[in-house]
Design a protein that fits this description.
Layout lengths: L1 H17 L11 E6 L4 E4 L6 E5 L5 E12 L4 E8 L4 E9 L3 E8 L7 E2 L6 E7 L8 E5 L10 E3 L2 E3 L2 E2 L1 E6 L43 E2 L16 E7 L2 E3 L7 E3 L4 E7 L5 E6 L2 E6 L5 E7 L6 E10 L9 E8 L9 H45 L7
Parallel strand pairs: 18-24
Antiparallel strand pairs: 1-14, 2-10, 3-9, 3-11, 4-7, 4-8, 4-10, 4-14, 5-6, 5-9, 10-13, 11-12, 15-21, 16-17, 16-19, 19-22, 20-21, 20-23, 23-24
């Protein structure tokens, strides 16, 4: 009796485990939307926020991958997700990026579950980095508008053809009822992107978000020229986020809606004045002597201008004037061509032409040798003596 009771108790305890089915693990990273084709990259430093609108089909968003080029290892990158339907920021996150070309992954699981999304709303993802003069981190993009049909790439609120490269991941929760409304969004303080602390590519602080406001060139007081004041020097010119060659014989052509960034060096703490026609722009050099101005071509009338630089120190002493380059403001849109891209294209043409010419030479030599060989065989046959018949 006692033995039977013990067996019954053991069976009663083990019964739920004998018929227990294993629970299926939740896959939080199911691919939702993606756009992976690209033709190039566009820089996304803080001054020019690029963004991509998108929609989700899954109720919870857990991860976003962004296709990047020229990433700087250890540098900071920020992602902002905005609900375009309500105008609210859904989430802001930042981390240290990897190096080179590849996918930059942003985990969106603040509560280990993900962000609750409304599948009827339109969202946008915004990317920002610090500024880099050479090979800045770039977001891959395509101009093919059919690559992704649920959104588009933008510069601010201005739409451009095609899409940025991205992938979104998430999952659905089936609770036998509709998902609850999104929790109220708590306003967050704007997160400042720290400067890159690497040794190879130091970042420069870049806080301006709009082109500089021009002043009249006649408003600049003529100061006493002092040879000890360092004359401003040009470092680089960026037109619509593309580093261009400004030293061509015909000058630099820009469109009427182009944004031009002129950067250079001068004496630390000096104020640099950039004069273009009857407009002038000023900037103060930092402790390392770096300065820049941002010019909107819409503020300048169509025509050709010498871009002239002059600096003055805190004592009111001025440097001599220096002509940095020639600027041509055209009455039509101009697509800026990077100097590196032009060089690579020209070099590629030269290499291809050389290979074709070399192949043609080898082909001619081959046929000449073959013809000579055949002629030599014919000569041997002709000269061979015939056997005398007995």
């Amino acid at each position: 009796m006692r033995k039977s009771l013990i067996i019954s108790l053991v069976c009663l305890i083990l019964f739920p485990f004998l018929f227990r089915f294993p629970a299926k693990a939740l896959d939080m990273y199911q691919l939702d939307q993606e756009q992976t084709s690209f033709i190039g990259g566009v820089s996304v430093y803080t001054e020019y926020y690029r963004n991509q609108t998108f929609k989700v089909t899954k109720g919870v968003l857990t991860r976003i991958d962004v296709g990047m080029m020229d990433r700087k290892s250890g540098a900071n990158i920020i992602l902002v997700i905005q609900d375009e339907t309500t105008g609210q920021n859904v989430w802001t996150t930042n981390h240290r990026m990897d190096a080179g070309d590849g996918w930059e992954t942003f985990e969106l699981t603040p509560n280990d579950l993900g962000l609750l999304m409304d599948t009827t709303h339109l969202y946008s993802m915004w990317i920002g980095t610090s500024y880099y003069a050479v090979d800045p981190p770039a977001w891959q993009y395509t101009t093919n508008s059919s690559s992704y049909t649920l959104g588009t790439r933008r510069d601010g609120q201005v739409e451009y053809p095609g899409d940025m490269v991205f992938r979104t991941y998430g999952y659905d929760i089936d609770m036998g009822r509709e998902n609850p409304d999104n929790p109220p969004v708590v306003p967050e303080e704007e997160e400042e992107i720290p400067e890159y602390d690497g040794k190879d590519e130091p970042a420069t602080e870049d806080k301006a978000v709009v082109p500089d406001k021009p002043i009249s060139a006649t408003d600049i007081d003529e100061e006493d020229i002092d040879e000890e004041v360092i004359v401003p020097a040009l470092e680089f010119v960026i037109v619509d986020d593309v580093i261009v060659d400004s030293q061509g014989e015909d000058g630099l052509d820009v469109g009427v809606e182009s944004i031009i960034k002129i950067a250079g060096t001068a004496g630390a703490g000096d104020t640099v004045y950039i004069t273009i026609g009857d407009k002038a722009y000023s900037a103060k050099a930092d402790d390392d002597g770096n300065w820049y101005v941002i010019v909107s071509a819409t503020d300048i009338a169509e025509g050709s201008y010498d871009v002239i630089a002059q600096s003055k120190n805190d004592d009111g002493k001025a440097s001599t004037k220096a002509t940095l380059f020639k600027l041509n403001v055209l009455g039509e849109d101009v697509v800026p061509i990077a100097e590196e891209e032009t060089d690579i294209f020209t070099y590629g043409i030269y290499v291809l032409s050389g290979i074709l010419l070399l192949g043609l030479i080898f082909l001619v030599i081959f046929f000449i040798k073959r013809k000579k060989k055949e002629e030599k065989k014919e000569d041997i046959k002709v000269e061979m003596p015939k056997e005398d018949k007995i």
